[in-house]
Design a protein that fits this description.
Helices cover 19% and strands 25% of the residues. The protein has a domain of 159 residues: Cyclophilin-like (Cyclophilin, Beta Barrel), CATH 2.40.100.10. It is globular. It starts with a helix and ends in a 6-residue tail after the last strand. The strands form three sheets. The chain has an eight-stranded antiparallel barrel. The protein has a five-stranded antiparallel β-sheet with strand order 6-10-9-8-7, with no helix packed on it. Strands 1-15-16 form a three-stranded antiparallel β-sheet, with no helix packed on it. It is α+β, with helices and mostly antiparallel strands. The longest helix is centred in the N-terminal third of the chain and has 14 residues.
């Protein structure tokens, strides 16, 4: 029988020899592999009940829609006119004007053409070797998941992604009506609805809302709706109150290691590595910026 000290030493050797988990890789990633998300791209939405949701916008993928959102925020339009109006099980939570009659501020572009797909590949695109059902290639660029086909690229509809509500084509939405994906990624919506960002904090406040009983999850009474008390950019908040986040740079060596570990789980719990991963399981990791100083 092995002595306790020998057993402990053997256990330590096994731990040391174990391949790193995705969490291990993130914990050991050097500071240079993390990038600050600009405060000008962090949209802070405060909901009734002291609930905060923070959204990272993607101006490189949907510049006109994002410009519209900036105009709406600067005007104070959302707290005056919008509320959460829809919560559909395993699908989306949506917010906008319940009456669809509130006037939009000057400078809003009607029917922006961007946000669906863009030409070529984005700068710094790093392709993955995994198959995708909705495009020829998937990968990452600039801290975002990317799908591509036919010489074009787009953001995929993954959980936490934020899109622009619209009516029937040719309408493309203005950004006054937005939604967040709270269920399984509805990738069939790719290139059919503009995506403008992703939720980086407060997803729990959206995903736990009571489901609407109306058609496709719409609330049927004003009492069910959740008010928006404030909508601002982090850059416009006092420095001490600004939410701040970093993302793992998608061109960093530790990101490649993290992708490999996610696609080939070698943790003790797993029996067989899958050898692949869906793009929605490879959203670039985030962390509060304060963690970098710990």
């Amino acid at each position: 029988m092995m002595r306790p000290l020998l057993l402990a030493a053997a256990a330590l050797l096994l731990i040391a020899a174990a391949p790193p988990s995705p969490a291990d890789i993130l914990a050991s990633a050097p500071a240079a592999d993390w990038a600050d998300i600009p405060a000008t791209d962090l949209l802070v939405m405060d909901l009734a009940g002291n609930r905060r949701v923070v959204i990272q916008l993607a101006p490189a993928f949907a510049p006109t829609h994002v410009a519209n959102i900036r105009t709406l925020v600067a005007d104070g339009w959302f707290p005056r006119h919008a509320a959460i109006v829809r919560a559909q099980e395993n699908y989306v939570v949506q917010w906008g004007d319940p009456t669809a009659k509130a006037p939009l501020p000057a400078g809003i572009a009607a029917q922006p053409a961007d946000g669906y797909e863009r030409p070529g590949l984005p700068p710094g695109f790093r392709a993955l070797p995994f198959a995708d059902a909705y495009g020829a290639r998937i990968g990452h660029a600039g801290g975002w998941p990317v799908a591509s086909d036919d010489g074009k690229h787009w953001l995929p509809h993954c959980p936490t992604m934020v899109g622009v509500g619209r009516d029937m084509p040719p309408d493309t939405g203005t950004g006054a009506e937005l939604y967040a994906v709270i269920g399984h990624g509805p990738r069939h919506l790719d290139r059919n609805i503009a995506l403008v960002g992703r939720v980086v904090q407060g997803m729990d406040h959206l995903s736990t809302l009571p489901r609407g009983t109306g058609e496709i999850g719409f609330y049927t009474s004003a009492a069910e709706r959740v008010g928006i008390t404030a909508m601002r950019f982090a850059a416009d908040l006092p420095a001490a109150e600004r939410p701040a986040f970093q993302l793992l740079r998608t061109d960093a060596a530790s990101f490649a290691l993290w992708v490999d570990a996610r696609a080939n789980r070698r943790d003790g719990f797993f029996i067989r590595p899958s050898g692949g991963a869906d793009i929605c399981n490879l959203l670039p990791p985030l962390r509060p910026a304060g963690q970098a100083r710990k």
